[in-house]
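agent> Task received from the user: take the single chain below, predict its 3D structure, and emit structure tokens. No templates, no multimer pairing.
agent> Plan: (1) validate residues, (2) run structure prediction, (3) serialize to tokens, (4) report one or two observations.
agent> Step 1 OK, no nonstandard residues flagged.
tool_call: predict_structure(input=
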Amino acid sequence: MSSKKPIVAITVGDPCGIGPEITAKALSEAEIYNKCNPVVIGDAEVMKQAVKIAKVNMKINPVTNLEDCKYEHGIIDVFDLKNVNVEKIEFGKVTKLGGESSFQYIVKGIELALEGKVDAVTTGPIHKQAINLAGHKYSGHTEIFADYTKTKDYCMMLVDKDFRVSHVTTHVAFRQVPDLVTKDRVLKVIQLTNEAVTKMGIENPRTAVAGLNPHSGEDGLFGREEIEEIEPAIKEASSMGIQVEGPVPPDTVFVKLRGGQYDAVVAMYHDQGHIPTKLVGFKYDDKLGKWGSLSGVNTTLGLPIIRTSVDHGVAFGKAGKGTANPESMIDAINLAAVMAGGKE
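)
tool_result: status=success, residues=344
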């Protein structure tokens, strides 16, 4: 084992979805082993099944102790929780089995990271309904990680190469968003964004803050959130030495990000940030009836540990068929390795 390369734990997600398959496909890429030491948190029998589905020439090395990992290309080290009977897997369905096993993978990954035994956690896709069916009342990965690490101030960032977007709010009803866009919250997300992009290797990053309202409120004509909450946050962040601009009208700020004017954008709500990022990274061909590209990574900022994730769901319609695209998983593992390498 190379002590210089960070150890990245990969939780495979819901075994009824494409998580195990895309994990197997991602780890068939030799380049990943050049950047990190990956270990899968899951079930060894599930990963044996996934290797067959993915049609990759990889052997499974089940372990219950990280010291027994090989960290060699051609071998998938699996921290084996032995919590799935593969004969009971129902591909493409919301099940208690899928929710419970995927939740246990996440908790073990967090535990290993908090103990300092792994340097980062990359998560495969879970199904929120399955998680709740198993009795775990969370709206997604981000909330699980925040709860189990006792983190109060955190935010979601989507990354697709140089396209980086963090979010002031995410999984809330749209009518709640204006009340949640406060000076303190916007300031915190600006700070978290600046820290994260610096960790990604960009010195003194340039951050733009999107407005909440059309035309960033047009001097109060279309709303006062920009004047009363967003602008004061930007001014305070600037006084701290952060290179930040805004509020920039949300209908142009992402064009400027893509053009290289900024290194990151702070979006005010879920769809404001997700739509442009997925437009950049996702490509669908209706004539072929399939997705050509599924690039992009979801990472949680503000945690005491590094967490990255695929930027797509369980894709139940593709589960078990061997046709799932591993691009986002590859991106997520690589970003985890970069961020782990940048830890102090």
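agent> Step 4: summary for the user.
The first helix runs from residue 19 to 27.
agent> Done.
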